[in-house]
Specification:
single chain, 491 residues, alpha/beta, FAD/NAD(P)-binding domain, 5-stranded parallel sheet, 21 strands, 29% helix, globular
Amino acid sequence: MSETNRPRIVILGAGPGGLCIAKKLLDAGQDKLTILERGNEIGGTWVNNRYPGLACDVPSFLYSFSFEMKVDWTKTYAMQPEIKRYVQDCARKYGIDKYVRFDTDIISARWIEDSAVWRLTDRAGNVHEAEIFISALGMFNEVNWPRIDGLDSFQGEIIHTAHWPEGRDLSGRNVAVVGSAASAVQLIPEVARQAARLTVFQRTANWVMPKKDADYTEEDLEQFRRNPQIAHDARAEQRYQMEIRIAFDNKPIIADMERQSLRAQSVVTDAHTREKLRPNVPLGSQRPLYSNDYYPTFNLPHVRLITGAVTRVGERSVSTATETVEDVDTLILATGYKANKFLSVIDVYGRDGLSIHDAWSEGPQAYLGIATSGFPNLFMLYGPNTNNGSIMTMLEYQSDYIIARLRQMLDAGLSWVDIRKSVMDAYNEKLQAEIRAVEPWQAEGSKYYRAASGRIVTQWPHNMEAYEKAVAVDDFDLYEHSAKQGRLATA
């Protein structure tokens, strides 16, 4: 990109997505960047979440950027502190940290047509303007606080897994955990090691597979450092193994995964509890989970499983329609995020005042998960229907696509581009047909994948290689654009 052709670019979010696009923009000569971050640290979800047991469910070598391959991960599946350090080390190494503006909570963004700029407003009333707006908010941005009758009346401590107090000790406490999905599966074994009594409230049983996890020895790490190719080969193998599983269309492999989970469930000695832990939906209809400790936890004498939705919380009690647990002093809400909202967690207004809430009334949608019609110069990372595989890999593909379109826009002397609605609609019609062909996703399962309309809005129905090919095309002619105005020179 020309030195005299450098628009202002605002990136929303300083997690892995914001870091990835910023690094690649700087490589492309675009240094008029501002990264707006609600929190006070770089790291995104790996800063916001720190509950006990938090780890990645993607193998460590694969949960790395290709431009910063870490060869000395200490575990096959890294824990939260190590991933947080990795992301922050990347930011420092590439000088990205100096572009971040912390404690800036954006609540709205509006396209100003006359000047072809985005105007973002934060909670303090400050206004931020840029020609290019890139959302790196992703899926895990707005906490899902459950609506439970009486929750405000609880007299003990309420902890959401997304807001875990640093160093919280649960020794001797009578704990109730609401939820049995991703965060709960990691958290529950850790809580059981401390609590005097633990009651788990499970609305839906999930498939939990054994996790082929291990600590790397010092000898392993030294070998990786001396010969990084070993780690690169391990990454390639991890990717291959993930690629053949993630689309859920290889029935023999899925059947084998189910058998692995059933064998893991067999360690639960109480037959009634074991039956309650067995899912009644096909594997893949919900997010697959991995743990070696989850099922054995239910053999502990102080751990109890109750099935059914929580209907009421009292001053010291938690109830379903059929059972009540008294004397609860700590209530943990492992209820995750509103993962199907994406950028609509803030108010966004595009051309002719179009609200993103109206544009996405049937659920979030975008062309390639990156561009949504009616919102010029707005690009998304980890947007609608891009969830599958290693998000670090998907983020790189998306970042490369965005930079290619920006280069074409600027080289053509255009002030804005906007994906045509007919293109986006045709893309999503085809995408939803492909999603309907993924059999497990049609079963009644987790709301994690679906908008209120019932449409699946989170998942990419193929593997990472297919997405790489989808975004590698030159599709600039599919975008509407402004009249040519000469090169944009804001340097």
